[in-house]
Amino acid sequence: MEKGTWTFRCRKCCETFELLLTEKDRASEFAQEKRCPSCGQAPSDPHPAPAMTAEHGHKVIGYRPEKNTRPFLI
Fold this sequence. Notes:
The chain is an alpha+beta fold. Helix content is 15%, strand content 26%. It contains two helices and three strands. The two termini are 23 Å apart.
């Protein structure tokens, strides 16, 4: 995947947060592992919030690609 900014929505508190991911990162993995900066809930916690039991991870709601800063070579 391209480098870019992904927007997630926490399934517990419904707050949104953004993460800048590189080419080797996967948004789906971050959605299941990253803690919400607002409430601190992580989908992988041993006792997840009731809102997260049916869904396994924060919801991905947006993506903005990072501009290519590498020069174009012919």
